[in-house]
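Please, structure for the following, as tokens.
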Amino acid sequence: MRYSVTHVVTSSHRSRGRRPTARRIPRRCARLHPRRRVAAHDTDGGRPTGRGLADDDLPRVARHGLAAGRPDDPRVGRGRRRDHGGRGRHHDAERHRGGGAEHRPRAARQRALRAHRRARPRPAAALPPPPPRPLAGGAARDPHRGDRERPGVGRDPRGRRAADGALSHAVGPGLRVLGTDHDGRRPGPGGARRSAPPPRLLLPGAAVSIGRRIAPGLVGIPDEVDVVVVGLGITGAGVALDAVTRGLTVLAVDAHDLAFGTSRWSSKLVHGGLRYLAQGQLAIAHESAVERGILMDVTAPHLVHPLPMLTPVDDAMTRGKAALTWGGLHAGDLLRRTAHTTSRTLPRPRRLNVTETLNLAPSLRADTLRGGLLAWDGQLEDDARLVTTVARTAASYGAEVRTRARVTSATGTRVEVRDELTGTTYAVRARAVVNATGVWAGDLDEQVRLRPSRGTHLVLRGSSLPQTRVAVMVPIPGTSARFAMVLPQPDGTIYVGLTDVPADGPLPDVPVPSEDEVDLLLEVVASTFTTPPTRADVVGAFAGLRPLLEVAGTDETADLSRRHAILTSATGVTTIVGGKLTTYRRMAQDALDALVGSGRLAAGPCRTAGLPLLGAGSPAQLRGLDAPTRLVRRFGTDAPLVLDAARAVTGLTDDELLAPLSDTVPVTLAELVFGVTHEGAHDVDDLLDRRTRVGLVEADRRATGPHAERALALVRASRRTPARALPHL
């Protein structure tokens, strides 16, 4: 629409011999310019002109036309009756009837709009910052910036309440249910977010056990509980936390250690379900997106960070496949929106040109590159660290969490458990027994039929693909929805994965990658990088087994559903199988809901969707902690506790406690000591393989083994000195 603005111009100079035709318009007073940088329309800044003469009061027609997103004259255009001038019902129509400046003797120029009132186009998602990585809790978030997708304060992270009533009931005293973007009350404009308080066991009917920690062995366990959980992977730890926060007494046991099985062999990703969407599994895809949002915003924001994922568009990717991939990324963004995860948590996908693509991954082949597609997903600091934190949180609420405890027989109301340290067998009565042993579930329930698949990852040094700041997704030839992933890790290593092959034969406790899988991964990524990694660059490898449910008529394990199932054996044991790491919380909720619904347990609704784990905190709170960055990234708000515990046990200085164990291993002695005192580590393997991930590289294991032995010796010595008291949980 075209329009013109007419202004009456009057001279500010008196004419000789006659009266001026109009009174001079006074200049705007300096007090009307509280922030001179905002008043962009006043080119003179309220000062006289260079000749000492007042300038004419000519309205600056170009002012605000673009910045305010509307015409300069508030009387022109569609919004002329919407009170753009801010006069509202106090507007004096008689005073402003003429519309020109000569009718307003003391009128000032139009004031500049405040910054937060200007209509600006939303910029595209910013590229990830250069290393070093930011602190835990995700990228920095501007509390001043509005977000059109931001849910209301206190809103349930899944949007509307679920039909099963989760989080729809009043919460017991001391347990605070948070929504996805619950910020608390801010002290003022621009105030920092107030983080959730640490969880407390103040639920009606729950067993209070302040200071309870994870422990190896079975000494002192109760002979009767409400729920026995067998297996302490992510699923078993999640079931223990769900049960104890409903007010039930819980005994959770594992024959080996926390995260001993599949839970430590993942890609360290919190997926949003894009692959399942491509396979038409809409329910699983939506469930994954919802659980990802809960993990990133409520449960563990200190352990799950936004990860930029780059798909290079090169000669190997046809234009049709690039368009299909771009459509899939937008479908994944639609999943994010339906899960009520804001774009501040996970930005929208965007296209990149060649320069931007090479800036994020300089090792890519530039001669065949046409651009890139950038999307975002969640990345775990460490999958075993998440399992340990969930188990430790359950213990803080009163659950008995024991390792080195093997279940030799089980029914729905009774288990026999053998202490692997002493050989003593204990009988424990229970109202319900949950089998959460993953691919080994058939050992307790013969009716379970699984088809495990093996996924292999390679471990490279960061120098193999230097300055790679994002995950790189390489399409696997011959497939439409599968990619090999190059995943940079916080400790300076890079993982290359992931295979999906059937795991036939007996199931080992620790799976071993095959040579064919190693060759396949190196071959897939070779065509994408200028100097591709070779066998000499592979410093480690690991493989995990997926507990996939057997489905009739399905040949390939990659096509098997990742949906979980709740099964009840003839003996009454409840088995939970299937699923994946991202959806562990929902799996635990469904298992407990099934037991409550059948009348075997009397408990309230699930509370874990709004329950932060130990160490969870807002980004502002994490940045404000007076603790080393590595400890904050791995322990969140418990980082000071880690250092205090190490000081109390060892009596060493901070320099010695926080020094990296070697040039290639950033792990500190303080972490190893805390793993023994608060996280139930029993030997060197527990410390190097599961409390930290040093064991993934054999050379690093050899270099840090003496440090792990020293940490164990220091803790044993402190236990012989009762005067030393450890800091509270």
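Residues 698-719 form the longest helix (22 residues). The radius of gyration is 31 Å.
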